[in-house]
Amino acid sequence: MTLTSFGPANRIKRSAETHPLTWRLRDDGEAVWLDEYQAKNGYAAARKAFADMAQDDIVQTVKDSGLKGRGGAGFPTGVKWGLMPKDESINIRYLLCNADEMEPNTWKDRMLMEQLPHLLIEGMLISARALKTYRGYIFLRGEYTTAAKHLNRAVEEAKAAGLLGKNILGSGFDFELFVHTGAGRYICGEETALINSLEGRRANPRSKPPFPAAVGVWGKPTCVNNVETLCNVPAIIADGVDWYKSLAREGSEDMGTKLMGFSGKVKNPGLWELPFGVTGRELFEDYAGGMRDGYQLKAWQPGGAGTGFLLPEHLDAQMYAGGIAKVGTRMGTGLAMAVDDSVNMVSLLRNMEEFFARESCGFCTPCRDGLPWSVKLLRAIENGQGQAGDIETLLGLVGFLGPGKTFCAHAPGAVEPLGSAIKYFRHEFEAGIAPTSAAVPPLARPIVVGA
């Protein structure tokens, strides 16, 4: 995995002033353990939070910073923290770190956990102090075996140093932290499905309300945050709100920096910490180096498999939630994928929808039945056996599985790339319709929503 400098064109060195997440990384890619982490100002923010800040002041600082969730949804972190109950008599609360990272084409949290495990622990420690949670869990994707090994070692180091456990830093505050490896389901990225899995139940999303802040793990107030989100907390506490906001580019409504990346047949696939507001073109050309020789950019996804496709003409969009929304899709995880001109979009979408159909929890009918239906139609079109009306049926499924139509956001994310692929590359879908096929009777397929 590559992680280059803040500005590869002019080789600006990573520093604490510009790279709050990655400045401590070692050049050899090895993990930064406790002694080295503390030598690089590690746990200084935690000491400040425990010694100089009231718990409510920590929450307000994070809220004022504009930090938003880095897992894809982008919900304001301080607002989520503010939903936790203020009642001091509720003495059992939980903090969960969502480290499932099952989104295809996304690996940013893995890098943080493998190379900077203490940054995550410090972020969770400060967050636990703010939220008055006495126990935390890192719900980790089961395939991340190296991350699990490094996190468990870092937890033991922190315990031995008095940074976890009883009476942390002499404050009277107790916080235990455990690494829990999941069984490997995409749906566990949804916070209530994660909670069910942690409790030993089937990983189905829960009905909301009640929200986890009121009724979470084992019925107690619970806050769930993403790995990258929690890793931002120490720098915000250490260096302040104004500094953190100043990191973003002009025009960006999102604050701070973001781990962004590019994969596919680009010259320099990798992962970089960049300010919100850089353009997709900067990310693609200056950092990823453009397409490899012999390939041309056909389309790209800005943030994981659950985001809509964009065209090369959209590369000038700014990489923040509102900037990407202006060109018709979502920022997602911020790790982009380049689709080259040799790829057939029908085959690509069939592969994606097979994944999403397999990973559906099966709880609600539109998702359980609609996604396999899309796979069946796409497979027929891919083999040149599509029937007249199949494209309209696929568009109908995009409408029926869209936002607000299913129990959770799994199906809307699954069909967003499908709808955008048909929008921009309909001719490739039409090429798979058998020339002698008869139209399917209208009642045999969904009505196209909005038609």
TrEMBL record:
Reactions that this protein is recorded to catalyse: a quinone + NADH + 5 H(+)(in) = a quinol + NAD(+) + 4 H(+)(out)
Enzyme class: translocase
Entry EC number(s): 7.1.1.-
A matching Pfam family: NADH_4Fe-4S
Signal peptide: none
Domain called NADH-ubiquinone oxidoreductase 51kDa subunit iron-sulphur binding: residue spans: 346-391
Domain of life (superkingdom): Bacteria
Swiss-Prot/TrEMBL keywords: 4Fe-4S, Flavoprotein, FMN, Iron, Iron-sulfur, Metal-binding, NAD, Quinone, Translocase
Required cofactor names: FMN; [4Fe-4S] cluster
Family: Belongs to the complex I 51 kDa subunit family.
Reported function: NDH-1 shuttles electrons from NADH, via FMN and iron-sulfur (Fe-S) centers, to quinones in the respiratory chain.
Protein name as catalogued: NADH-quinone oxidoreductase subunit F
Organism: Pseudomonas izuensis
Lineage: Bacteria, Pseudomonadati, Pseudomonadota, Gammaproteobacteria, Pseudomonadales
